[in-house]
């Protein structure tokens, strides 16, 4: 069974903004057993509203008889810094004030977040990671981390993500934050601040996560006499209520800003120059109906990263297809591994 653990870092942690945290903790999940030579580590980075329990939201990839069986692999996933599933975030008590951070929690970038992940990796004594895997926001973090620590990662699998967050994606995120700002409770310092705005933000987000086809197939009215109280309308309300029951507006705001900040080329001479640092064998995966992270973004990465592979998932779910089309994703990853193994054997035989 997956094991839930907590990593404590008790030193000052400097952030890219110039602000700092007086230490932090990361909640993380492990699954399986680390083998003797530590060659079986898979590290997963979760999406915007995900938790460290990857078996909950990507369960078809992990488990006995699945792609990553615990008998073969040691899988790790940490709830992102700034999160609300056990890691230090806005609702955490600031040890310097003895009050929750709330609005005073400093802004984070993906670079800050993966530096925190890397401190956990070092604490676990993991020198090499066989596969770094992430989708959406987690895919951004995975790419950033693989550039930051190129010697650590053997394989990088980035799913439905990009090298720099697009103007389109930033506009979607800002529209959601506008909804939170319109909630008058957002000005206060309470755990529930901005919760009504968060519900609207989530409804907006769903339009970027899904696709026209998905809504038509699942939410269109069966008859011709309806003039109000549409399924699609109640579905939007339901999605907002559902997220608000498990999340908070502070973390949503914070992590959407981290997503906006994503640009692996920042202070590295641009994206192409930054990608030259990658040493991991790389697979970039897109979803053909993704409106938020369109396929052009993964194809662009594939063109820039020498020797990389590209795989396309077919889905009516839009961006969320990366969580739904697990059979296709499993096949793409298996083919990626098999191709690299064949190449490795070929090189060994050539040297002999």
Short description:
This protein is of the alpha/beta class. It has helices spanning 54-57, 110-123, 137-148, 167-182, 195-209, 212-219, 231-244, 249-260, 271-275, 295-304, 321-324, 326-351; strands at 3-9, 13-14, 20-21, 24-32, 41-45, 74-78, 93-94, 99-100, 129-135, 153-159, 281-287, 309-313.
Mind explaining what this structure looks like?
- With 352 residues, the protein is of the alpha/beta class.
- The chain folds into two domains: 3-166 and 262-351, Rossmann fold, CATH 3.40.50.1820; 169-258, Rna Polymerase Sigma Factor, Chain: A (Orthogonal Bundle).
- Helices cover 40% and strands 17% of the residues.
- The protein has twelve helices and twelve strands.
- It has helices at residues 54-57, 110-123, 137-148, 167-182, 195-209, 212-219, 231-244, 249-260, 271-275, 295-304, 321-324, 326-351; strands at 3-9, 13-14, 20-21, 24-32, 41-45, 74-78, 93-94, 99-100, 129-135, 153-159, 281-287, 309-313.
- The strands form three sheets. It has an eight-stranded mixed sheet, with helices on both faces.
- It is globular.
């Amino acid at each position: 069974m997956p094991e839930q653990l907590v990593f404590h870092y008790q030193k000052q942690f400097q952030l890219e903004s110039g602000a700092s945290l007086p230490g932090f903790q990361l909640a993380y999940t492990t699954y399986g057993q680390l083998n003797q030579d530590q060659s079986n580590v898979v590290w997963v980075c979760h999406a915007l509203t995900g938790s460290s329990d990857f078996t909950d939201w990507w369960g078809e990839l992990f488990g006995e008889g699945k792609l990553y069986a615990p008998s073969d692999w040691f899988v790790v996933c940490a709830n992102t810094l700034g999160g609300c599933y056990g890691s230090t975030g806005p609702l955490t008590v600031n040890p310097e004030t003895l009050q929750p951070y709330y609005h005073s929690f400093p802004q984070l970038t993906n670079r800050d977040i993966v530096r925190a992940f890397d401190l956990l990796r070092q604490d676990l004594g993991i020198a090499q990671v066989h596969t770094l895997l992430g989708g959406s926001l987690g895919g951004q973090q995975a790419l950033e981390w693989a550039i930051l620590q190129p010697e650590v990662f053997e394989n990088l699998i980035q799913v439905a993500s990009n090298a720099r967050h697009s103007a389109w994606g930033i506009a979607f995120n800002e529209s959601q934050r506008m909804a939170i700002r319109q909630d008058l409770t957002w000005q206060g310092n309470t755990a529930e601040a901005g919760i009504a705005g968060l519900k609207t933000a989530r409804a907006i987000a769903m339009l970027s996560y899904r696709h026209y086809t998905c809504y038509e197939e699942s939410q269109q009215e069966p008859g011709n006499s309806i003039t109000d109280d549409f399924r699609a309308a109640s579905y939007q309300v339901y999605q907002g209520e559902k997220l608000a029951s498990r999340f908070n507006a502070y973390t949503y705001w914070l992590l959407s800003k981290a997503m906006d900040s994503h640009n692996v080329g920042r202070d590295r001479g641009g994206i192409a120059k930054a990608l030259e640092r990658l040493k991991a064998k790389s697979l970039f995966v897109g979803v053909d109906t993704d409106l938020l992270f369109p396929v052009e973004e993964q194809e662009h990465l594939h063109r820039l990263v020498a020797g990389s592979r590209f795989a396309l998932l077919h889905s009516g779910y839009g961006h969320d297809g990366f969580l739904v089309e697990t059979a296709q994703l499993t096949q793409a990853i298996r083919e990626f591994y098999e191709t690299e193994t064949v190449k490795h054997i070929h090189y060994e035989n050539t040297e002999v």
